[in-house]
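USER: Please consider what follows.
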Amino acid sequence: MIRTQIQLSEAQARRLRVAARREGISVAEAIRRLVDRGLSDDKVDRAQLYERAASAVGRFRDRSGAKDVAKAHDRYLDEAFE
């Protein structure tokens, strides 16, 4: 193991201690796990997330049968509040 030093805000340190206590592990182990998770190659590509979200646009109808609610939500809101 390599020893390192970091600085945390009071809130971060408090949340870290609470999480470690809840998991029944040391603060150091909690930090190691968080670092591993942050450096993981399993991160979802933001472009891929956008593509998934964009592909859902228009796939589902609302109660009145409209399929363009995601694209035209401002127009629908204007009509609803006229």
User: Anything to note?
Assistant: The mean pLDDT is 83. The chain has two domains: 1-42, 46-80. Residues 46-80 form one domain. The helical segments are 10-23, 27-38, 46-56, 73-80.
